[in-house]
UniProtKB/TrEMBL annotation, chains A, B:
Ca(2+) 3 binds at residue 298. The keyword Cell cycle does not apply. PROSITE patterns: ANNEXIN_1, ANNEXIN_2. This is Annexin. Belongs to the annexin family. Ca(2+) 1 binds at residues 24, 26, 28, 68, 256, 260, 300-301, 306. One of its GO terms (molecular function) is phosphatidylserine binding.
Amino acid sequence: MATLTVPSAVPPVADDCDQLRKAFQGWGTNEALIISILAHRDAAQRRAIRRAYADTYGEELLRSITDEISGDFERAVILWTLDPAERDAVLANEVARKWHPGSGSRVLVEIACARGPAQLFAVRQAYHERFKRSLEEDVAAHATGDFRKLLVPLISAYRYEGPEVNTKLAHSEAKILHEKIQHKAYGDDEIIRILTTRSKAQLIATFNRYNDEYGHPINKDLKADPKDEFLSTLRAIIRCFCCPDRYFEKVIRLAIAGMGTDENSLTRIITTRAEVDLKLITEAYQKRNSVPLERAVAGDTSGDYERMLLALLGQEQ
Amino acid sequence: MATLTVPSAVPPVADDCDQLRKAFQGWGTNEALIISILAHRDAAQRRAIRRAYADTYGEELLRSITDEISGDFERAVILWTLDPAERDAVLANEVARKWHPGSGSRVLVEIACARGPAQLFAVRQAYHERFKRSLEEDVAAHATGDFRKLLVPLISAYRYEGPEVNTKLAHSEAKILHEKIQHKAYGDDEIIRILTTRSKAQLIATFNRYNDEYGHPINKDLKADPKDEFLSTLRAIIRCFCCPDRYFEKVIRLAIAGMGTDENSLTRIITTRAEVDLKLITEAYQKRNSVPLERAVAGDTSGDYERMLLALLGQEQ
């Protein structure tokens, strides 16, 4: 349920490169041309364009983009143009290096829990290639305390992906989670073990069991202190497994709401989900806010940045 | 530096299957024939034989083997015939399920530290396929205390594999290791973080720095209590990175030495290293014990089991 729109007849890669080169040259940059090409090509097509562009002009496409545009628009075009695994590696590296528990753990949770196990491993491979270190190495070196204890195994996991569920285990681990939460032992080894190693299917069974047994969703019990960043990280993990569309809807909602816009989060969610499930997220947004997401984005952003996001949201130009 | 010997003219796969089938049939089993084929085929050839055998006879080769032979000989043939990643998954599963800190952690340390990062990931994939769970999930569910804290990240790591070394970091992390060891804080988060996330090249630089700075190898400081299983696990990690041949030599030496033989360890090391570096290990053994490893193995084992191990050690039949 992507929002990305790709023309039915995509021009040859050489033509795309040629057009992009023209957009960068001469007085001023043709931003509309950049958007009309890159925001309407899928990951494989963008990869082919990057390769052909470097071969033809002896310069990286991303380098040319960075030289010509700037600010939020630049960040959106760069992040979008990157391969999904490379993009996640870049996002993870940013938050690992400038560690801040709240925003940092949110990005890492999304990468660890809202992508599949194979995709998470591809991110770790891209991280090696780009940064000459491992993702877990950087997170372990910068994050601290309970956040480190939780996030290092979270991003190191290679979870089983099958549908098999052990109902007895769901029962016993729902009980463990409940007991630890009752005692406010949120950073307990057992909570971390369960959340970081069990398969998605098994975890969903455990959370359902929790709901059945204790009369309300586990996330309600994890809201004891709404301002606690660690609790909010635990809730984000659970939501990324159970209802990623509603999780992402909320991140976008908070990015737009109130004074000022959180462009970083807005760009991250739109570029990482446009080819995945952004249609579901826009539906969740409309349902929750009674406003189309496109209108909300248009109201909070402007210029080429706005046009780029709206193109990725699938709005007709 | 493998010991495996493969004939210069390997028979067609169909002939190998045919011969194996004959070895299993009729009164009694032709063990010598099984050894003469399987112990002289490399991983790709064994894989091809398994596939062709299943296609031809509608039964798994490993199943046929299990029906016909038993004991240590069976275990050696089965482990050897498995693909390297699948074999490691089986070994890891055995120790995870019947958890015992000493032997269990040794097997996991070998798989995590004496294989490359890509091979470790292949083991995790094979584990999913075979056991419908993840390796880290089973280790986390069975191991306890400091062992769990150490082994779960150890087997979840995807270490950077490049040669780059940060000398400043080697310096500062050698200091951290030294301080924690001085205070006997062996299970400290920082020791675990360093050992489980840094690349092999970086770790070796750190251990060298430790030696330079404090006048003796880190492993000497980790011998405070020679009977402590956790300390011995830390030393095994360091040795698997720094000198895998000498590490494996010692495991074999201890398996053979004294009253009785530790067949499990002997079989494990010979089957996992015959295609990798068993020649180096036999050289290290000869040097350390003034006896050829083949002679020591022959002295401590017998029958088909002995013949299987000697074949894998490259001894002419």
